[in-house]
Amino acid sequence: MIDSREKKLVLPPPTSYEGPLPRNCTFSESDWRILANFWHPVALANKVVNQPVAATLLDQNLVLYRTSKGVVAANNLCLHRGVPLTMGWCEGGEIICKYHGFRYNNEGQCINIPAHPDAVIPPKLRLHTYPVEEKYGLIWVCLSGHPANILPDVPEWDTPGYQCVIPEPIDLSAAAGRQLEGFLDVAHFTWLHPEIFGDCNSPVAPQYPVEKTLTGLHIKYRSEEGNYLRQDGTEYTPGDGVLRVFDVTLPFSARLVVHMPDGARLAILNSASPISIRKTRLFPVLMRNYDLGEPVEPFIAYNNKIFDEDRDVVQAQCPEDLPMDQMEEVHIRADRTSIAYRQELARLGLGRSYTA
Question: pTM higher than 0.85 for the full model?
Answer without folding.
Answer: yes
